[in-house]
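README: folding subset

This subset contains proteins for which both the sequence and a predicted structure token string are available. Records are stored as plain text. Below is the entry for Syntaxin-binding protein 5 (1098 residues), shown exactly as it appears on disk.
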Amino acid sequence: MRKFNIRKVLDGLTAGSSSTSQQQQQQQPTGNREPEIQETLQSEHFQLCKTVRHGFPYQPSALAFDPVQKILAVGTQTGALRLFGRPGVECYCQHDSGAAVIQLQFLINEGALVSALADDTLHLWNLRQKRPAILHSLKFCRERVTFCHLPFQSKWLYVGTERGNIHIVNVESFTLSGYVIMWNKAIELSSKSHPGPVVHISDNPMDEGKLLIGFESGTVVLWDLKSKKADYRYTYDEAIHSVAWHHEGKQFICSHSDGTLTIWNVRSPTKPVQTITPHGKQLKDGKKPEPCKPILKVEFKTTRSGEPFIILSGGLSYDTVGRRPCLTVMHGKSTAVLEMDYSIVDFLTLCETPYPNDFQEPYAVVVLLEKDLVLIDLAQNGYPIFENPYPLSIHESPVTCCEYFADCPVDLIPALYSVGARQKRQGYSKKEWPINGGNWGLGAQSYPEIIITGHADGSVKFWDASAITLQVLYKLKTSKVFEKSKNKDDRPNTDIVDEDPYAIQIISWCPESRMLCIAGVSAHVIIYRFSKQEVITEVIPMLEVRLLYEINDVESPEGEQPPPLPTPVGGSNPQPVPPQSHPSTSSSSSDGLRDNVPCLKVKNSPLKQSPGYQTELVIQLVWVGGEPPQQITSLAINSSYGLVVFGNCNGIAMVDYLQKAVLLNLGTIELYGSNDPYRREPRSPRKSRQPSGAGLCDITEGTVVPEDRCKSPTSDVKDNSFSRSRSSSVTSIDKESREAISALHFCETFTRKADLSPSPCLWVGTTLGTVLVIALNLPPGGEQRLLQPVIVSPSGTILRLKGAILRMAFLDTTGCLVPPAHEPWREHNVPEEKDEKEKLKKRRPVSVSPSSSQEISENQYAVICSEKQAKVISLPTQNCAYKQNITETSFVLRGDIVALSNSICLACFCANGHIMTFSLPSLRPLLDVYYLPLTNMRIARTFCFTNNGQALYLVSPTEIQRLTYSQETCENLQEMLGELFTPVETPEAPNRGFFKGLFGGGAQSLDREELFGESSSGKASRSLAQHIPGPGGIEGVKGAASGVVGELARARLALDERGQKLGDLEERTAAMLSSADSFSKHAHEMMLKYKDKKWYQF
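--- output ---
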């Protein structure tokens, strides 16, 4: 980030001087006051860094588990590494190459992990620091890596290759041993052809000197490491996918491509002891069962008190078409087939012991699916699944939009949690989640944070995102208010989308009043009120709105309404429209075109509404003369005024949701009245002057973008759930060139230049860069609010910017943010009597800004951000106080006015990948960092900034990436992150009895150092693999071992993480010894026990 600092400072200086010179030139009457606002934010308050990544690892490819540390690792096809400990302890790392992870191997209880990648590199990760780093890498130059195996408590990693050879890597130095097992030596004359790649390597649990090697073709070899020759060769005429040992080392099991399992006695290589086809139909006359699909993996786990478990994935018969992927658990005579929602990538059996030569005692199976992680309880009847505590369900239905709220009211999370707790599924395992390693970080941030995600199936999820964790609070299904068609033939042809007609496009939420409003893809808006009481709504209140884009007469005065509109156009005195309880019946106009019908049918039966968000009103746009309603491009709700407003490329509509009445229904052109700066012609495709294309339509409709806009949105068709199929006669050029409503903001400010005091109004921004102001005349609170109409009138105020308007906000005379007025939340579903007194007292709340309580002459500032520039307008004079051109060559995708360090700033994210912040009100540049090299449709749709320097976006279809632009949060991040590694005692090795140990009846150990070390095996060929030192540096543990050195490494790590850079060897050793003092007694015993296994390097 350093290279940006100089630029930031220079930018700040130049912008500061240019804005002051602008000020002097303008010579505004209010200009004298502007310098009085002390701006506290400086460049040093800003720093950009990623904080955490939540959600399911996208495109997973590998799985590993440390049974002592209780940490799970998942690798992906894009080179990402996700580590999971106890709920709340998660970590994301990335291999720089981006190559797929093909295998992961923990150095059990050593705080290290080896990853094997598809580009034939091996990496050693140090997990003993909060942000894991690579200590060593090894790049194979002449061979392709296919399988790795690291025995428990060994430092020698076996690496199998595509050519069928096995190399041995010292994980301490990450160098190759000269010892190589060549494929031709392994199979000798047992086969005339090449045996294929190595698909399995493992040592005999009872004899470390015997290595079992599985080749793809079906050959298995038991190799004697000391004598360097094969003891036995086992051949089978079907390809092998995986191999597993029985813990006594006398038998092993293979899974094959024809759906069979073969069990072999080690000393009987001629034929398998048993052949099982778990899913094959047993034919009479002793014939072989019909072949099945390949068994991709098998595990063989033993128990002290009963039959062993054989667990496998795949192997279903070919006639089970449409059957979901299955995991099969065979235990004794029972076979359980567990269906999964997605295809199985990998699975692992979690066992009580890390020792392969002991009874395994399996207690759970972790199954990594393409889009889910499932944990099965093996100890309970019926094999129930554990309730997953990680936030992996973000993508349950594809995310179509999201909003982020930091520093919410403190009672919100408990309220949402209490209504969400009732939605929990039943039937989970009663046990605690078994992946419980690591420790939580120290949460320095104490403010509540909420993320809201909108989904393709119409659901809305609320997440608790406080202190860099994520937990789902509550899920709302917005589709519940609509009739579902039983089959495709039933579906009316009114849909404007082929699939996902309920997809959420925009969310507008008022945290203080808890009012929620959503706009969906079928041109529908639903308003929700929060309640803790269950209610039954007899008739769902609904309104239909006919938004039209039609220019019959260019000169039509603003109050006059064109004949085809059934609802009154807002002039100065609109009449309320009674809410309709069901869709209107006139479905086609005289010429047979579809007319006046909404896209979705609202249920006309009573609706039971659980505690939580309950439907207050459904508003739908209807077809007009054969043209479907255009999608909604902007939305705003105000709880204090009781109003909701929304717009699209046809116009704007405002609804009083308390009186259930349409107040305003205007084409965009009619908003201008006689002040329209554009020459417009009646409906026809035309190219009008466009600053940067209709920005918001580009993002939401997936239409073609001009050359200078981000290329990826249109190519990302599959991911873009808003790609539309319309049966509209209007060409895309016509829709593109229409002026859409792109931003809406309710506020209490000066609507006209002559105003002496602020009053409620609505500011409207369009895609052509115009800001228009609509004045609101609200009746008094209480009963009067429900009886008298709200009067809406265009004020005549028009402001212009370059590019589509994205965001508006207001500052008071001291430069503080003026929040829109809001009503505090109260329970509406309580008996009326209790409410009567409150209602009489209640007056419409006003915004709590200093300006409304100070002298009438106090001014305000409007902050307006467009795709291209930002302006600060002084009110009521409407003079431009400050202006900043944000980007010339690109365009802003998201702009937010946010609070940070007791001040406020404008934060922008550009399509060219830059993140920028500007001070307010002077718009001094404070930060400009090139963050994302590629901006695609998904990122454009989901990126959002919030208070306290927080931001997020959907980095993949399944994951949310959070980042911070606050220097303070970056500094505190290390403390907030959880620790993956915790010092844990390795369990005692299984006791084989005194005599067995004395006379060698138990497990045979092997001096691997003697065999694989340089002294006996020589040096490996230099051209075979290249060693690359990792960036782990002094922070990293360069080797981890059992016993005393393991404890010293832990002590050293504790010092390192406190930021003490230790100098030379003596100083470092002394510091470690003093820290390890408390471990000395145990360390001495362990040293005696494992003295030949010391391999810690300084």
